[in-house]
Amino acid sequence: MNRLTRREALAAIAAPFVVTAAARGPEIAVAEIRHSYEQYSFRTPLKFGGAVMDKSTLLNVDCVVRTRAGRTAKGFGSMPLGNIWSYPSKTVGPERTLEAMKALAERITLLTGGYKEYGHPVDINVALEPEHLKAASEISTVRKLADPIPKLATLVVASAFDAAIHDAYGKLHGRNCYLTYGPDFMRHDLAHYLTPEFKGEYLNRYTLRAPKPSMPLYHLIGALDPIEDSDIRHRLNDGLPETLPEWIRTDGLTHLKIKLNGNDLAWDVERVVRVDRVASAVQASRRIARWFYSLDFNEKCPNVGYLLDFLRQVKEKTPAGFGRIQYIEQPTARDLKAHRTNVMHEASKLRPVVIDESLTDLGSLMLAREMGYTGAALKACKGQTQALLMAAAAQKYRMFLCVQDLTCPGASLIQSAGLAAHIPGVAAIEANARQYFPAANKPWEARFPGVFTIRGGVMNTGILNRPGLSAV
């Protein structure tokens, strides 16, 4: 009888658990990378967090990746730069913050093109992120920016590059990206990127192989948006709805996201009460018995006491409306370390409170949990890689999950919708570019029926199963 050597015995034990380099999908390096911009004006202004936005700059990225064997594939990524949200400043004007983010895009193009290591898209982004942050710091110094480019804005700029690489990788293998997140494609398990408790687990444990067939759409009600006819001074008459009842009837809406000011308690309470009154009348006429609200203060509440007072008053004035609140987005300041007294334990007993602007890495997620946040908002604009890693962590810690928009049109909406449709527990999707600058969606509508045109309040996400990120 033949006896195995110790090395052979160990190899035999490990064999079922090891994916060899030959068996793993070929790793890639970036062969070419370039970026460009598109500029759009809004059909109507969007107010959030005390700021008003009336235009958007899209950052588009094209890339080519190659394997060691010389196979190549093209990828595409796109994202609104969103400087008003990601780089707010009282000392640096919006024109300068936008130009700083564009300068960072130039640097990230050079950094990405100069990175020649082979790996999975997640590994490439993780390796490059420290260089992105270093470049942001250098640009801030050279331009003498009183408020340096924050990490959130850096993630937004880098997200289009990350998306293009993921897209190209999926196309190289002829698969949707969400089929490339297991050990057959990834060299490292999640413990490599997160913490030891994820040992032996991969992203495919926390993502769905096939997208959900459809998802309800969260419609945005901005702080300047008209609720009723009496709110309109001059109609746009551009063929799109202009009041809340018109939007509800046209798109069959059942999910409404309400932007609030956070610095005017009476206004905030009345806004929700009024939305609920108007929505209730319309839904009754449609014979709809169940619908939902999410509330977004864009971190403008001065403290958690404001939020608790707000919730108490809403419950008193409209008990049914209070019952329709599904979750609350980050109500207080994004710098959690500087505002440790703004704990959410009491508020989270009433409704899930999700971390949004503060969520830039695993450390911020852990701190938010410690401070009483019970949910996490995932965003494609923070990067496909980061969204996936945070989705895994949030699921491990049994947190409420939602996927939020950055007024994403075109390819960026498809990426965001794909994220929502492939993450377990995410119940609805946001898509508000159709409200504010629908012109950016026009080239995509015919190719993606049901994604850019909403019927019955839902988006057809079942078609988001094409190679790459499904966009092109």
Summarize the structure.
With 472 residues, the chain is α/β, with parallel strands linked by helices.
Descriptive key words:
globular, TIM Barrel, 2 domains, 9-stranded mixed beta sheet, 3-stranded antiparallel beta sheet, 12 strands, disordered N terminus, 472 residues, 15 helices, Enolase-like, domain 1
Notes on the protein architecture:
This protein has 15 helices and twelve strands. The chain is of the alpha/beta class. The chain has two domains: 29-192, Enolase-like, N-terminal domain (Enolase-like, domain 1), CATH 3.30.390.10; 203-459, Alpha-Beta Barrel (TIM Barrel), CATH 3.20.20.120. Strands 4, 5, 6, 7, 8, 9, 10, 11 and 12 form a nine-stranded mixed β-sheet that branches. Helix 3 crosses helix 4 (121-142), helix 4 (121-142) runs antiparallel to helix 5 and helix 6 (244-251) crosses helix 7 (265-286). The termini are far apart.
> How many domains in all?
2
Work out the helix count: 15
**Can you tell me the CATH class of the largest domain?**
Alpha Beta
Strand content is 15-25%
Q: What about the largest sheet?
A: 9 strands, mixed
CATH homologous superfamily (4th level) name of the largest domain: Enolase-like C-terminal domain
What Rg do the Cα atoms give? 23 Å
CATH T-level topology of the largest domain:
TIM Barrel
Global structural class = alpha/beta
* Overall residue-averaged pLDDT value: 94
Could you tell me the number of beta strands? 12
Q: Report how far the terminal alpha carbons are from each other.
A: 59 Å
SSE sequence, one letter per element: HEEEHHHHEHEHEHHEHEHEHEHEHHE
Query: What is the percent of helical residues?
Result: 25-40%
Shape summary: globular
Q: Classify the oligomer.
A: single chain
- In CATH, the architecture of the largest domain is Alpha-Beta Barrel
